[in-house]
Amino acid sequence: MKAVRHGAKVLPEHARAHNRSLVLQTLFHQGAMSRADISRETGLTRVTISDLVAELIADGFIAEKGVREASGPGKPAILVDLDRDGHRIVGIDLSGSESFIGAVLTLDGDIVVRREVAAPATEDVVATVVALARDLVADSHAPVLGIGVGTPGVVDDRGVILTAPNFGWAGFDLESALEDALGLPVLVANDANAAVLAEYTFGGAGDDVILVKVGRGVGSGLLAAGQPLRGSRFAAGEIGHVTVGTDGGPVCVCGKVGCLEAWLSVPALTARLDAVADRDGILRDAGERLGIALAPVVGALDLSEVVLSGPEELLDGPLAQQAVETLRARTLAQFHDGVRVRMTAQGQDIVLRGAAVMVLSGQLGVS
Amino acid sequence: MKAVRHGAKVLPEHARAHNRSLVLQTLFHQGAMSRADISRETGLTRVTISDLVAELIADGFIAEKGVREASGPGKPAILVDLDRDGHRIVGIDLSGSESFIGAVLTLDGDIVVRREVAAPATEDVVATVVALARDLVADSHAPVLGIGVGTPGVVDDRGVILTAPNFGWAGFDLESALEDALGLPVLVANDANAAVLAEYTFGGAGDDVILVKVGRGVGSGLLAAGQPLRGSRFAAGEIGHVTVGTDGGPVCVCGKVGCLEAWLSVPALTARLDAVADRDGILRDAGERLGIALAPVVGALDLSEVVLSGPEELLDGPLAQQAVETLRARTLAQFHDGVRVRMTAQGQDIVLRGAAVMVLSGQLGVS
């Protein structure tokens, strides 16, 4: 028997917060509209909408944006929209092996300022992130709604880094450490989990998708029915050390043989490309291994697409092509013949933009 | 950009239905308690609880169950509980190759009447199910809350069978056909998806679990964070025709080589066991293939356990043992060394009990 979920209760103040998010969500996705439009879209009464809109204008989240000419008699409708210049978001991406990048973003996820700093020694990571965030907050011409951080490692739902070997973190509450230093709301998540949010909100991904992030390591972020998967130990998406196939393979840095990461990580791929002349063959082999590893996941979750993030010169082309061919060959044609494998169109900005989505979602309830 | 989800709005009547479910859910999981206890558990006011309890008593879903002796001064508290005899549920399992089984169940999922009929010719399936359901409704000593049906095939969220080759169904609205014939609420789902609900509600499964159902074919049902996974085409869990390994294997009925079903289905296993003397070796091979197929799924979803449903004499023992060894060897020890593979303790009743959970959830909001 399960414990009752206390989060499920609906109290009046929760309904209000929920309705507030609903108004923001509607404007976020549909743009400027009248109060009457919002009422129609949300099913909430005109009175409730007028009330919420007044409150959201006072808080600086929405603004009146002129009038729409009346098509018939009566006074023209005043349009309201998210005040896309009323607030900014700071996003930070710690997944680069050479550098950390950060940005000031609009509520629409557009990057207006970008900064990059060299990746520091392990013991200086927090200080470096704090300094980068402070500079970005100072860069912003509007109040900063919050700071989103995408980091390698396994992160729980309160922003505690359960493990991040690159930084020597285990059980480290990065979210609190940064909030204390910066005095602003901070949200921390795994980099690939941030990336899949960006792909969903800004990149046109479907509701059932895996984003595979290829860099020094290989990780992924998954959505099922548009909801992020977290896993029993917050380790959902950790597919880098799953063994691929039953015919051996390269030795992995973890000591096992044939891990996906040993086939697909940038260092592993680059080393093999440097060693042999058959570039396409190497890339096709890696794509085939990706397809072998993902076929059971595509089948079990009935995913409609696989999105790749990482160096285009490696991932786009023969690798992605072979991955989709292998996926289709190894799953049930009836359901998965249409599965797609594509590069993200968001390039290097994907984690930064995902970090912005975390803040939009955490602070405004918009997703 | 996503369309706004209209389902997300919280209107007063939704809050009331939600709170009603919350009271039922609390009693379902915790048993008899006082109105004051319910108020404390749910965070809802005493007035709201008194109101909801009165309504639920009038509807025959809960009942007063005596008093608890007062430990201090004041009058003893009246206990209320689900009226576990006030309603019954009918569950039907169409997954057997030889027969259909049906049962009358209590709200706790206990089976009080069971019936079995020979599986009919394809064209008689609906008539057979209707007759079985009518008999079971007549068997019930209390009003029937609804009828849950677990069936092979891919079923959408409205009970339309998208495809069920065994019965020749494609795009067939079984739920409406049965509701029209029976005049009671009907809920239809895939048999393995029903089974995982039973394992979650009655079998002690964790929040992140796959239930693998082995019979004529091989299917599965998955929960992530306690929520059923449906997939982009309602085909989540369809892992029978995922290719396992990169070293060939038996030819599958689908024509491909090395599908999980060709290794693990009851007919495939039985045929191999009949042909050779090394029973343990055959079972271990099948378990290894199950582990190979599931390793990427366990990694991607960070599942804590794999539950097996099907013939114990085949699945329990060397097969399950090898499956867990293979799973652990092919995933990251840090996260998945604790992953378990076990038989369900619910035997043949698992789909019937899952069908009851569908009705509890659909009609009372209890899960």
UniProtKB/TrEMBL annotation, chains A, B:
Single GO molecular function: kinase activity
Record bears the keyword Transferase: yes
Domain of life per record: Bacteria
Keywords from the named record: Kinase, Transferase
PANTHER family assigned to the protein according to its UniProt record, in alphabetical order: BIFUNCTIONAL UDP-N-ACETYLGLUCOSAMINE 2-EPIMERASE_N-ACETYLMANNOSAMINE KINASE, ROK (REPRESSOR, ORF, KINASE) FAMILY
Family statement: Belongs to the ROK (NagC/XylR) family.
Protein name in the entry: Putative NBD/HSP70 family sugar kinase
Organism: Microbacterium thalassium
